[in-house]
Amino acid sequence: MRFFLVLVFFVLVLAGLQAYQKTQQGHNVPADTQNTQIKKDLQQPEWNTTQQGTINLSRVRYDSEGLSIAGLVCAPRKLKDNTPLIMLEHGGFDTSTDPKRCAEYARLGYVIAQSAYRGQGGSEGKVEACQGEVQDSLALKQVVQERLKTRGVVHIGVSLGGCIALKAAAQQKDVKGVAILVTPMDFAQQIRILRATRPDALDRWYQIFGGTPEDAPEQYEKRQPLKEAALVDAPVLNLVAAQDPLIPYKQLCDLLVVRRKADRTVKVVHLARNGSASPPVQERYICEGEGKPALQLPAFRQEDVFVTYYNLYHTSTPHMWKTVQNFVFAVAPRP
């Protein structure tokens, strides 16, 4: 009798163990599915938001081509539906995002986003100089649009950021305008200038571009934004420093030709350094076939506006930023 009870006990234990194993098999997730889920979770944007008066300032981590990229987003706390998005594209190879400019536009009623870009500001990857950074900008735009439900976008680019702005805008259909400040169109020309003025900076450029313009001309060619500039279906505001030591003035003329060949109306304006009207016009700053420039800013509509500031070097000024602001108000009105 005792032997029979022991036997029954072991049979019941064995049956329960088999039933448990079958149940677990029904709930197990294949390894490849687990890995996919983990990867998907890692790609979800991370938002760290703080309140600053009437605005929210958010530090964002997001995915761009498998890289974790840092970004900054500012928005009004009382955000209205269909608010336009401003993408601020910074210049340089070691530049941080700009919380002050971010907050400024948010207080004006816009959503503004800035990518630190790959290789900068704590982001993964390496600096690519107007290549992968374009995708970083587009990826952040998508993240912001999905979360904050913005409508339409204006790209504002400073120096190298202007190249990113033009290339990003060329790939989108909801662009309201592009504003670029002291922006290069030909990096090989910049190298030739740096050889004479900043030889100490050349090694970093050669490292990023993969060689000299003579050794790797294709690397410099593919970074030029002129081809993409022809595809931008929105007004372009181009603010140029006449005495820029890094960007030959001819590059403004090159962009002017490209935009006019793309059937865009381009209004040309010459201003004094401080933005005052009617400076003495200098013939050397008139592009071939340009005609007589205007001496004051026009009302911003759907035409391109190219502005040359006399006696100004590779920098931006308060008047430039005020002009950009008025341009944004005109092409992307707040709801």
UniProtKB/TrEMBL annotation:
Residues spanning the membrane: none
Species assigned in the record: Deinococcus roseus
Stated name of the protein: Xaa-Pro dipeptidyl-peptidase-like domain-containing protein
Xaa-Pro dipeptidyl-peptidase-like domain span: 70-246
Coiled-coil features, chain-numbered ranges: none
Domain of life: Bacteria
